[in-house]
Amino acid sequence: GVRMRDYGRFGLADADAGDSRSLLVECGFHGDESSRDVAYDQCVRFLQAADALDAAEIERLLPGWRQPDAPRQWALEVTGPVVAQSERFRFTEPFSGLEVIAKAGTVIGDNDGTPVATPYDDCVLVMPSTRQARAGVTVVRYAQRRPL
């Protein structure tokens, strides 16, 4: 069906959102047990960043939730979706997500006869999926990497 990111603030431009903000953290494939560890880690990092709990409280209350820092970190800024025109949407190859497409204009799919191409160099594909493809459903989002 329609994904959470297609509702409410997630779909609004900043200019249309007033003072609201939304944060959606992708933790991995829902069936992968390591996704739970990523989710726990992100929860405690958010609690600490928001000054809700300090590091000692986190370790006491939620032992083992915080994971070691990644050797290199970057954030993804989602710039827009690709919305299926019909159930016939197809990717050119079996993308699984977080692929970085080097060149702008690279065709990655066919949207009911219309080629789908990356809008900029080093375009990151976020959660590509045709499993629920039908008119109006987001099948992938484009993102740019930003250093943290």
**Helix-residue proportion:** 10-25%
C-alpha end-to-end distance:
32 Å
Number of strands: 7
pLDDT averaged residue by residue = 90
Which segments are poorly predicted (pLDDT under 50) over 5 or more consecutive residues?
none
Please trace the helix and strand order, writing H or E for each element.
HHEEEEEEE
Shape: elongated
Number of helices: 2
Query: What's the assembly state of these chains?
Result: single chain
Q: Which CATH top level class of the domain at 73-147 fits?
A: Mainly Beta
CATH architecture of the domain at 73-147: Beta Barrel
Description of the structure:
This protein is α+β, with helices and mostly antiparallel strands and 148 residues long. The chain has a domain at 73-147: OB fold (Dihydrolipoamide Acetyltransferase, E2P). The chain is built from two helices and seven strands. It has helices at 33-49, 55-61, and strands spanning 74-83, 90-91, 100-101, 107-111, 114-117, 123-126, 138-147. The strands form two sheets. The protein has a four-stranded antiparallel beta sheet with strand order 1-7-6-3, with no helix packed on it. The chain has a three-stranded antiparallel beta sheet with strand order 2-4-5, with no helix packed on it. The longest helix has 17 residues, at 33-49. The chain is elongated.
Q: How would you concisely characterize the structure shown here?
A:
With 148 residues, this protein is α+β, with helices and mostly antiparallel strands. The protein has helices at 33-49, 55-61, and strands spanning 74-83, 90-91, 100-101, 107-111, 114-117, 123-126, 138-147.
